[in-house]
Amino acid sequence: MKTLPKPQSGAGAAPAVPLTAEELQLASRNHAMPLEMLAVDRTPAGMHYLLIHFDVPVIDAGAWRLRIGGAVRHPLEFTLAQLQAREQRTLAVTLECAGNGRSMLEPRPVSQPWIHGGIGTADWTGTPLAALLEEAGVEAAAVDIVFTGADRGVQGGEEQDYARSLTVSEAMSPDVLLAYAMNGAPLPPQHGFPVRLVVPGWYGMASVKWLTGIEAVTAPFTGFQQMAFYRYQASADDPGEPVTRIRVRSLMVPPGIPDFFTRDRLVESGPVLLRGRAWSGRAPIRQVQVAVDGVWSDAQLDPPDGEFAWRGWSFRWQAEPGRHELMCRAMDAIGQIQPLEPEWNVQGMGNNAVQKVRVTARP
Ligand SMILES: Nc1nc2c(c(=O)[nH]1)N[C@H]1C(S)=C(S)[C@@H](COP(=O)(O)O)O[C@H]1N2
Ligand SMILES: [Mo]
């Protein structure tokens, strides 16, 4: 009897403990961006990563309304056409799921089991939120602005609408958009149709999809997705720090061709142009380095592409025949640098450890 080839571990991607059926269920609903899409500036909608906590709501755009209320002097209500008639702005924004890299932590936090692909960059078109909040007249007593989506479910034993908040000053940033288009087309259902929030620089959880309500509140918002989830917790009883802006990170376009099962790479020896992207939600990218078998050299940066999109980089590698390990790491203008090893936390948030890619160069 023929035996099946034994599974091999793939570049840090294989978990020490097998995935559970629940993780597989989440992973197949919430797909990654295939890393070869790092080669293009804008991720096509069908290739952009997805993260949906509950179900994708089915929304009739004609009946949909956005309500702005709570601690405001003039509660407002908008149809989609009314929002589209307002000032329009397009921003190229790199979104990353805060749980990206989770499955490479040990022990593995059990949730959406991202490896590297919880990432994507799109042109988001919409109307600036700040002008709407000004029209509504947020009262001086307001501390947070709460954004609620049309999707509802149970998480951590608590039934909830998906909701997140920003402080009033964060919400008043000129770059926060109520977006109704992605890469020049109406939002696809899975990305928040008809209207979502886009909060540039922040991990994806802040960019609430299927937006229905915006409410100014006079006490700090304590919803589940704010106070219980999206925290850097050292242990289960640690309240932890909130997850906010995206940590500095880089990834490379996998060079050459893949092995089907392990995704290990095969290249011809000789000159190989390595390419990738780097981003940080806190400051511009200052430097990217590539390591070949543990020896670091500077990569070349492409020109920046706006304030909120990933930055391209390249590196000319002279590949000697044999097996190699490639790594890349980025540093931003405030000196944040990617760690070599991940920093573990209970929920598996913000893992920005360097990517390791195993490559064999053919003689
Ligand atoms: N209403 C709602 N908004 C949401 C979510 C959600 O489950 N429901 N997921 C959030 C998370 S965790 C991320 S990472 C981003 C993902 O956006 P994308 O699916 O368009 O890539 O949406 C955020 N907005
Ligand atoms: Mo996320």
Automatic annotation (TrEMBL):
Gene3D superfamilies: 2.60.40.650, Oxidoreductase, molybdopterin-binding domain
CDD domains: SO_family_Moco_dimer
Keyword line: Metal-binding, Molybdenum, Oxidoreductase
Domain Oxidoreductase molybdopterin-binding: 53-224
Cofactor (UniProt): Mo-molybdopterin
Domain of life of the native organism: Bacteria
Record domain Moybdenum cofactor oxidoreductase dimerisation: where: 269-360
Protein name stated in the entry: Sulfite oxidase
Native organism: Arthrobacter hankyongi
Lineage summary: Bacteria, Bacillati, Actinomycetota, Actinomycetes, Micrococcales
